[in-house]
Design a protein that fits this description.
Number of helices: 24
Strand content: 5-15%
Number of strands: 11
Distance between the termini: 18 Å
Structural class: alpha+beta
Mean pLDDT: 84
Largest sheet: 5 strands, antiparallel
Shape: elongated
Low-confidence stretches: 1-10, 354-366, 716-742
Length: 742
């Protein structure tokens, strides 16, 4: 039979993994040490941008302007504060002129200009006490950061009658990158000890608790090495390191919890060490493979988007998921072979138990509680299904009012220098500094044609002022200042109107609002592909796991419902600004365009992770007994506590990430923590058992051709449907330790 052949192959894999456990662990140690060296300095090679679409009109225009009109695209701003005197004071003007000349003489600095040279009103504060020196630093992210580090100390601080602060996009990006690295280190220092304490509480044994951490550390270090290699070929966002840490710890703990728990169950049922490892790999090991594939597919869907910010999370996510699964399936069995029953050593919970209590009774108590809970939910299945669904939908309603924007300096803490500079410019300078649009005109044109075009775009309803043209050969550019907010609906509408304007030359538009318009269009164009990939592959994998047509559909729908609270909270908290004081962030009134896509892919994958754990155990028992309701109860009894513990631990890691001072990272960490907890404590505990009860045995239906396909190619944790021993009841609710793989 096909299933027997698959079991033989898995048996061969078990023998391969466990034959030389010491050699396997030594090889892992060597590979980990090499990964430490290979991944060193990876953060310094990462960028802090990546939100723009590379092939978009705004990206092309920005690069053309940088090349032909560097003064039109300043990325470095020096805010010159004259104190109580006017910026037009002779002493202030003289010092500002000296600073401007000194900056223009710096290597790799172009397009230097200042208020004192141009007398442009846009470079002078409305109160007359601050003005700007603007310049452009040439080069890639890493080179630009090094140049900024070199020159910033020279200009920052007091110079005679003026005080200078450093800002501009390059300063914002550099400060964001530095802040993220510092926050990530702090998050790791928070997450690791708290996670270890929680693991000890879950396992009881300090030895068992250390195993998941070991797997997580291997996955994180290995992923850093992979990302270091990827940076040789393409851009990678520094934000991806946060996902590496979170998923590396979270998934490694999930997989290790599942494997170690199953191994301990087999030992408790009387199996020897080798047999327990073999059964664990044939059952929990298969579940880990399916889980890793579903999570990896959800993250791989981000590769369809052109923005390297999103693609970076796919690189990091795929690498860390596969490495966590590989470590769980290779290193853990080797370690368990060496430890055997000693995996239960150093039971620290004995200190908290009363004298005379039996350690082996401890794991069964929460199991019985989950069993009773599942029975209660299924007894009132319609009530739980309706109320839970309605509640989740209501929690997601705020997302209907979502507004999309771009990341800016307000991602940083209020006291960050570059944020302070940009806030001074926003509050104190005329117009909408930093929110202007540039129109590049390419082709031969007469002054009259330029003037006519300028008059026509000046007459557009959303335009406050038009400057230019500034000409160079056959090219020119116009600066257009919108009336509304930099990335508001009015400014986005103006972008489309400017692009639709006829002209005797080729025109293209860039600027903050133009980048947002192009980013939204790129995401909208690719989003159906990403969602389609996730849904189709998830349906296939869950079908291969369960052999049912309806369970995969149920899994996709319930996973989507589990994300509603996250999306609703993102808008209510981070867009609308509720709890901004408590969480220490500045609300911009919108959500960065790529964040919901990222959060959907990550949270959907993690929800499937828990869904696979539960469904695989239900399927195993259903294959053994054929009793649908008992199988659901059995599955929740044996995985409910495990899934909840894994979700709490992953939530702790994500909350640690959410302590970041950068708003997008805070949103990512806290949002996914909420999604994980809602999925484990609401969807897996209430919706899944109630919906499966309502569907009954039809849950397992599949047409004959698909049943034949599953019998030939499908894999499930329980393997083939077993032949029961003589006299054994098919409804065996208390036979907790039986495994068909044994």
């Amino acid at each position: 039979m096909p299933q027997v052949n698959r079991s033989e192959r898995l048996g061969g894999w078990t023998r391969f993994v466990t034959a030389r456990p010491r050699l396997a662990l030594l090889a892992a140690l060597v590979v980990t040490v090499l990964a430490v060296f290979a991944g060193s300095g990876v953060a310094d090679r990462m960028g802090s941008g990546g939100w723009e679409a590379p092939a978009a009109e705004s990206t092309y225009t920005t690069k053309a302007l940088e090349r032909e009109f560097p003064a039109s695209q300043p990325n470095l701003l020096l805010l010159v504060d004259s104190g109580s005197t006017s910026v037009d004071d002779p002493a202030v003007a003289a010092e500002a002129a000296r600073l401007t000349e000194e900056l223009a003489a710096e290597k790799d600095i172009t397009g230097v200009g200042s208020y004192w040279q141009s007398r442009s009103p846009g470079l002078r504060a409305k109160d007359g006490r601050e003005a700007l020196i603007a310049a452009r630093i040439e080069g890639h992210d890493k080179a630009v950061g090094e140049i900024l580090d070199r020159i910033a100390p020279t200009y920052r601080g007091t110079h005679g009658p003026v005080k200078v602060s450093v800002g501009g996009p390059v300063a914002v990006q550099h400060e964001m990158q530095t802040t993220i690295q510092e926050d990530l280190l702090r998050a790791e220092m928070i997450a690791l000890p708290v996670t270890l304490v929680l693991l000890v509480m879950v396992f009881g044994s300090a030895i068992a608790a250390l195993l998941p951490l070991g797997v997580g550390i291997v996955a994180i270090l290995g992923t850093n090495a992979v990302l270091r290699g990827i940076t040789e070929f393409t851009d990678v966002s520094v934000f991806a390191q946060n996902l590496t840490t979170a998923l590396g710890l979270g998934l490694a703990i999930d997989y290790a919890l599942f494997i170690v728990r199953r191994f301990r169950e087999e030992l408790a049922a009387g199996a020897d060490t080798r047999a327990a490892v073999g059964t664990t790999l044939r059952t929990a090991g298969r579940t880990v493979v399916f889980s890793a594939l579903t999570v990896a597919v959800s993250l791989a869907a981000m590769l369809v988007f052109p923005q390297y910010f999103l693609r970076s999370f796919a690189y990091a996510g795929i690498a860390v998921v596969l490495l966590a699964a590989a470590a769980a399936l290779i290193l853990l069995p080797a370690a368990l072979m060496l430890l055997g029953p000693r995996v239960n050593s150093l039971d620290l919970r004995r200190l908290l138990r009363r004298r005379g209590s039996e350690a082996h009774h401890e794991p069964d108590a929460p199991g019985r509680g989950w069993g009773r809970f599942a029975t209660l939910v299924m007894r009132r299945a319609p009530v739980f299904a309706v109320l839970t669904t309605v509640g989740l939908v209501l929690l997601g309603l705020p997302f209907l009012g979502v507004k999309f924007g771009t990341a800016d300096d307000r991602q940083l803490p209020a006291g960050a220098e570059s944020h302070v500079v940009q806030q001074h410019i926003r509050d104190g300078f005329p117009g909408s500094p930093g929110g202007g649009l540039e129109v590049l005109a390419v082709g031969s044109a007469t002054p009259a044609q330029y003037a006519d075009y300028r008059n026509r775009i000046t007459a557009l309803p959303g335009v406050l002022r038009v400057d230019g043209p500034v000409t160079e050969g056959r090219s020119a550019y116009f600066s257009v200042l919108p009336k509304g907010e930099a990335v508001g609906e009015e400014s986005q509408r103006l972008v489309r109107e400017l692009r639709a304007q006829p002209a005797p030359f080729d025109t293209s538009v860039t600027g903050t609002a133009a980048v947002l318009v192009d980013s939204k269009d790129a995401i909208a164009d690719r989003l159906p592909w990403a969602v389609g990939i996730i849904v189709l592959v998830t349906l296939l994998l869950v079908f291969l796991l369960t052999g049912s047509v309806l369970i995969p559909l149920q899994a996709v729908v319930l996973n989507a419902l589990s994300l509603t609270a996250m999306f609703g909270a993102v808008v209510w908290v981070f867009q609308d600004g509720h709890l901004s004081g408590l969480l220490s962030f500045t609300s911009t009134g919108d959500i960065e365009t790529t964040l919901p896509v990222l959060m959907f892919c990550v949270a959907f994958g993690l929800s499937m992770d828990y869904g696979v754990f539960l469904l695989s155990r239900i399927k195993e028992e259903y294959d053994r007994t054929g009793d649908h309701e008992h199988s659901v109860t059995f599955g929740l009894r044996h995985t409910g506590g495990l899934i909840t513990a894994a979700a709490v631990i992953l939530a702790v890691v994500m909350v640690a990430i959410g302590t970041s001072r950068v708003t997008n990272t805070k949103m990512l960490g806290l949002g996914i923590a909420l999604a994980v907890l809602m999925d484990a404590m609401v969807v897996r505990s209430l919706l899944v058992p109630s919906v499966m009860k309502l569907m009954g045995r039809v849950t397992w239906w599949a047409p004959a051709p698909l049943r034949a396909f599953h019998q030939k190619f499908g894999l499930s944790e329980g393997g083939p449907a077993p032949v029961l021993a003589e006299g054994m009841s098919t409804a065996a609710p208390d036979r907790d330790k039986i495994s068909t793989g044994a």
